[in-house]
């Protein structure tokens, strides 16, 4: 079988990193040789990797975005100059090591998991290598992304998008490119994920994600103030990130200290256990690609309430069957649906059964059949 090289920015917490780890594990189980080409070494991998997966760290530098922003905030011009120069060095090394590695790989498969990697792969990947690009998020009609799709993917053999909607859009954008095949490839639930049918639920609702403004946790907390007026149900938000202090301040301002709990980051098994104890899942992201966490929540029998942003939740949630899709930022309706699920145990139980069934559509065995076809035929 062909050796498969998968690019990854790092192997710490993140949806892309979880998807990469899950795919690497699934492929080595099926006899493929897999190497993860990891740009940054930020610590040991968060998500368990099969011992047969090779991880190669390409640099010994660390990104310093937060240090640059801190120097800018403090108006520390010498510090800003120092961090800015280091940032340029990091960016240069990042591109240099990937360019050199792509040139050195003479056969097999390279799977790039970020747009900037895919641009380099198209330019420097060898002709005998099967070159696969994967987009793990919504392009949101970003001009830079669209320009790259049209002009800098010409030697990419297969471009994988997370939903059919994204595949249709990108195929039209790349119509002049007769070489690249655009296909849909959703994320999948690893065989190692524990599926539970427990009925021992606590009076809590859960949401998981990086504490970043794109995840919409501020608006979730604001809405929970309305929920708390009519229910004593607790909201648990699992994750860490740069918005943590802002979220804590908002919780304190609204007097929700006993109703909204920020747990911090958790090991993956602990996240699943919190899901198992919850009534349902809530998602308030402003943008998503293919929210893997929704599949996980459904595998634990959780219906979901989510804003129907441009792509993502609607690819998984079947409205009024295993959850509710709410017009984006219709906060009153979101609160109403949350209260409805809290108050109606029978509806929750019916939706829970449907959620289990929906999760089965995204099992490892089902999705890996598609991967095998692509890896063996290149289409």
Short summary of the structure?
By secondary structure, this protein is an alpha/beta fold.
What can you tell me about this protein's structure?
The protein is an alpha/beta fold and 379 residues long. It has two domains: 3-190 and 363-377, Glycogen Phosphorylase B (Rossmann fold), CATH 3.40.50; 204-360, Rossmann fold, CATH 3.40.50. 43% of the residues lie in helices and 16% in strands. The chain is built from 13 helices and 13 strands. The chain has helices at 15-29, 65-73, 77-104, 115-124, 143-151, 164-173, 217-228, 244-253, 268-276, 292-299, 331-343, 345-360, 364-377; strands at residues 3-8, 33-38, 54-57, 109-112, 130-134, 158-161, 181-184, 204-208, 234-238, 260-264, 281-283, 304-307, 323-326. The protein has a seven-stranded parallel sheet with strand order 3-2-1-4-5-6-7. Helix 3 crosses helix 4 (115-124), helix 7 runs parallel beside helix 8 (244-253) and helix 7 (217-228) packs across helix 11. It is globular, with a radius of gyration of 22 Å.
Helix content: 40-55%
Strand content: 15-25%
Question: How many angstroms separate the termini?
Answer: 16 Å
Q: In the CATH classification, which architecture of the largest domain applies?
A: 3-Layer(aba) Sandwich
Low-confidence stretches: none
| Number of discrete domains | 2
């Amino acid at each position: 079988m062909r050796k498969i090289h998968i690019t990854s920015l790092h192997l710490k917490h993140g949806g892309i990193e979880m998807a990469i780890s899950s795919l690497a594990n699934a492929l080595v189980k099926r006899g493929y040789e897999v190497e993860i080409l990891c740009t940054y070494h930020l610590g040991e991998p968060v998500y368990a990797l099969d011992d047969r997966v090779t991880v190669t760290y390409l640099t010994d530098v660390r990104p310093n975005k937060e240090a640059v922003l801190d120097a800018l905030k403090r108006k520390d011009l010498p510090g800003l100059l120092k961090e800015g120069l280091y940032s340029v060095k990091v960016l240069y090394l990042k591109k240099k090591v990937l360019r050199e590695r792509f040139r050195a790989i003479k056969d097999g498969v390279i799977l790039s998991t970020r747009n900037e990697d895919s641009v380099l792969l198209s330019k420097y990947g060898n002709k005998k290598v099967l070159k696969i690009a994967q987009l793990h998020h919504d392009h949101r009609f970003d001009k830079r992304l669209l320009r790259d799709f049209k002009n800098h993917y010409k030697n990419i053999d297969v471009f994988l998008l997370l939903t059919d909607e994204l595949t249709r859009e990108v195929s039209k954008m790349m119509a002049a490119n007769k070489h690249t095949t655009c296909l849909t490839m959703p994320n999948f639930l690893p065989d190692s994920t524990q599926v539970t049918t427990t009925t021992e639920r606590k009076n809590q609702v859960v949401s998981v994600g990086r504490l970043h403004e794109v995840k919409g946790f501020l608006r979730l907390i604001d809405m929970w103030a309305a929920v708390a007026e009519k229910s004593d149900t607790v909201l648990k938000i699992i994750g860490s990130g740069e918005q943590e202090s802002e979220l804590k301040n908002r919780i304190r301002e609204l007097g929700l200290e006993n109703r909204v709990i920020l747990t911090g980051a958790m090991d993956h098994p602990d996240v699943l256990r919190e899901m198992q104890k919850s009534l349902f899942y809530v998602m308030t992201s402003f943008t998503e690609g293919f929210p893997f966490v929704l599949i996980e929540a459904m595998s634990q029998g959780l219906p979901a309430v989510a804003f129907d942003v441009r792509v993502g939740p609607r690819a998984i949630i079947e409205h009024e069957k295993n959850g509710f899709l709410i017009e984006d930022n219709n906060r009153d309706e979101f609160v109403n649906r949350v209260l409805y699920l809290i108050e109606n145990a029978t509806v929750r139980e019916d939706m829970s059964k449907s959620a289990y069934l929906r999760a089965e559509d995204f099992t490892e065995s089902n999705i890996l059949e598609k991967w095998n076809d692509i890896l063996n035929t290149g289409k």
